[in-house]
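Consider the following input, taken from an annotated entry for DUF2157 domain-containing protein (Flavobacterium hungaricum).
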Amino acid sequence: MEKFKEQATQDLLESGFITQNQFDEIKTYRSLNIFSLNAELKFLLYLSVVSFTSGIGVLIYENIDTIGHIAILAVLLIVIAICFYYCFKNSKGFQKTETVFEHPVLEYLVLAANILTCIFIGYLQFQYKPFGDNYGLATLVPTLVSFFCAYYFDNKSVLTIAVTGLAAYIGLSVTPQTLLSNNDFYASESLSYSAVMLGILLILWTIYSRRIALKTHFALIFLTFALHIISIASISNMVSFDVFTWILFTVILAVSTFYFYKISYQYKAISLYIFMIIYAYVGVNVFLFKLFENIDFSEIWELFVLILPIYFISSIVLFIKLIKNFHKEITA
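Applying the prediction step yields:
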């Protein structure tokens, strides 16, 4: 690895991208054998937050009869208040551009406070039902809190929780009412329409945020959620027996694939590009299966068995080639 780095640096010098003085400085720095523990420490902090919040949940579950509901809620509220007080006190306030805490621990303290808030509201609703039987509202409240924290403290982890909560709220809002009047299939179809609309709203919000320069670095998170939500909803309905439904969602998947193909180049996001290809590949296979499902292959099954391995091998080769070309184009 070291020889590769040295050769790469030498190539940069010979190509004129760096000066001799820069080359000497790079060589001197590498000779110090300094390495960063930043990623490892952040992972340990994240693991600590997850372990702590999970431990709170286990503690509540195992001692719910002995500790008492009021005591549990009071302790949770105190811990949440302390976390948020410390975070607000040391934050730079809301800014439209990307901001970071002076100390990385505060970023994970925001995450801990947000998760504990979700636990608090969920436990409060489960035990005392302040929102009645409206579990959708009980989901929406921590979702709104998460969105506020994500934008105020510029926290991507909290933003992920917020978008997940929003998706859960839409699912809880759509499914129960539909199940009362229809069977499972139509409930699933109704939920799929809502999922596609949510994906479109996330895309529109990304476009609007970019226009007003509001936390533009959040775009990749919104687009990733939109890609997964729209694609999964479309593919799940492409197997429908209703002709209109599978044609409609085939068109939606095709439009989504084209859009995310363009946007992956715009943001130079290889993750979007890879998942876009995977979903498109699955969609194409489902579409072909729907086209040929009424055709009798009994007379040509030997040819079909021969072609199938070639098809899958060609697909793998094409997939690798597309990824290599994409990486080459965005790094050129």
